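Milestone M4 deliverable, item 7.
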Amino acid sequence: GIGEAVTAPAKTTFRGSFVGTAKYTGSGNVSIVKAGTTRTIKVASNFRADRRSIRLRMYLAKTPGGRGGIDLGAMRETGAQSFRVPARVNLGTYRYVVAWCAAVNEPIASAKLNLVR
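Output delivered:
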C-alpha cells in the first residue's frame, strides 16, 4: 500500500561453516545476507557450540583466532541467530565469524566467509 517502505531483495553474499578449535567443538552454517545497505550475519539453526562454552560473543575477525575482532554482541550456544554487520566493516578484510568465549577469552569455533558468486 501507500507509504510502505520499499525493501531491496535480500541476497546472500557470503557463506561459511563453523569448525571447532583444537580445544573445542563447533559446527553449523553461517551466511551474510545483504538487503539494500544492511548486511546481516545469519547463523543457521544447525549451529552448535561446545557444551562447555559459556558467555559466547559473536566476533567478526580477520583471522580464525578472533583476536582484534569486532564484538557484535552476545551469542547463544545453539540455534539460529542474527547479527548486524556495522556499516564501516569491510568484509574483504574481516573474513571470519568467530564464536568467542568471554569466560576463557578464547575462540570456540570459527567460520571462514566465502564469497558467493
